[in-house]
């Protein structure tokens, strides 16, 4: 059984995440993209479920997060929401839905909220997206920022290497984090940056900072659920801890099924009418 099943079954809100930061309680966040997985993740005590645009990679097999559409994100988020009782559900705004025009961004944000029932949205970027973030917040929608290695900008970066190792990029990240906190974001994901920088940023703002490959000094951690369950073989960055090897578990189970069918061992007499 799960090692940490929460006794507090109240719905997680952005306000409760803020209290967790204040009291030094760590925040556990994982992705989910469908109803069945969301039920497991929520039931195991995860505080925040991210319907990440990493669905583009894990669910659709794309190389990047860029191809996933707003309709596809809405489908995933709506399925997740149906499986969740306690966790705060955050949905990624996909590439192209908030970068062009802040008015467009708020229209897309409202559509995602209305059609999915999720609790909040996540957008990638710093000062350049503040006008869009502000309008979305003004519409009453909680926003989470995402800085560091922002996968929607992978073509600009040209590499998945650690970000903000140089002073200039680190300085921009610090001021982006302050700008996102000042405008009213309820949290920020920091992806693949030096632990020391993430620790500084965590101390410099009063909103929760959730790290992925950003060290233990953050207020919480997020991983892609398929990665931490070992459902894909090809992805092993240094920051990833695998808690299971489901690729092998599932392959063995399915292999046994195939062999039972072929050897006339399934179904047996008790498995038929
Ligand atoms: O899309 C995603 O899964 C994410 C996490 C990596 C934070 O943004």
Structural class: alpha/beta
From the N-terminal CA to the C-terminal CA, the straight-line distance is 33 Å
SS summary, helix count: 11
Would you report the number of β strands?
8
Low-confidence stretches: none
Rg for CA atoms = 20 Å
* Chemical compounds bound to the protein: 3-methyl-2-oxobutanoic acid
What is the spatial order of strands in the main beta sheet? Answer: 1-2-3-4-5-6-7-8
H/E element sequence:
HEHEHHEHEHEHHEHEEHH
Silhouette: globular
Note the quaternary state here. single chain
Largest sheet: 8 strands, parallel, barrel
Percentage of residues assigned to helices: 40-55%
**Mean pLDDT level:** 97
- Percentage of β-strand residues: 5-15%
Write the layout of secondary structure elements.
Blueprint: H1 14-23, E1 27-31, H2 35-43, E2 48-51, H3 55-58, H4 70-82, E3 88-92, H5 102-116, E4 120-122, H6 130-138, E5 143-148, H7 154-157, H8 167-183, E6 187-191, H9 195-204, E7 209-212, E8 220-223, H10 225-228, H11 246-262
The structure holds 3-methyl-2-oxobutanoic acid (KIV).
3-methyl-2-oxobutanoic acid binds at residues 31, 50, 52-54, 92, 146, 189, 191, 212, 222, 224.
Summarize the structure.
The protein is α/β, with parallel strands linked by helices and 273 residues long. Helices cover 41% and strands 13% of the residues. The chain binds 3-methyl-2-oxobutanoic acid (KIV).
């Amino acid at each position: 059984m799960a090692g940490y099943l929460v006794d507090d079954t109240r719905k997680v809100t952005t306000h409760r995440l803020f209290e967790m930061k204040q009291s030094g309680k760590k925040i556990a966040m994982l992705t989910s993209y469908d109803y069945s997985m969301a039920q497991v993740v929520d039931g195991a005590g995860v505080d925040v479920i991210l319907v990440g645009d990493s669905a583009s990679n894990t669910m659709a097999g794309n190389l990047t997060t860029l191809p996933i559409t707003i309709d596809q994100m809405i489908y995933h988020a709506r399925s997740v929401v149906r499986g969740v009782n306690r966790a705060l559900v955050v949905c990624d705004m996909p590439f192209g839905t908030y970068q062009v025009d802040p008015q467009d961004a708020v229209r897309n944000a409202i559509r995602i909220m209305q059609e999915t029932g999720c609790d909040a949205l996540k957008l990638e970027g710093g000062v350049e997206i503040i006008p869009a973030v502000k309008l979305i917040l003004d519409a009453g929608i909680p926003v989470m920022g995402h800085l560091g290695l922002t996968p929607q900008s992978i073509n600009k970066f040209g590499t998945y290497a650690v970000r903000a190792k140089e002073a200039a990029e680190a300085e921009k990240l610090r001021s982006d984090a302050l700008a996102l906190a000042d405008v009213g974001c309820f949290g920020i994901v920091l992806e693949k940056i030096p632990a020391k920088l993430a620790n500084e940023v965590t101390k410099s703002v009063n909103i929760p900072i959730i790290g992925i490959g950003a060290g233990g000094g953050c207020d919480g951690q997020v991983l892609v659920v398929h990665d931490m369950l070992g459902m894909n073989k090809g992805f092993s960055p240094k920051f990833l801890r695998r808690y299971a090897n489901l690729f092998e578990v599932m392959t063995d189970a399915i292999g046994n099924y195939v062999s039972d069918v072929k050897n006339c061992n399934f179904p047996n007499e008790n498995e038929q009418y």
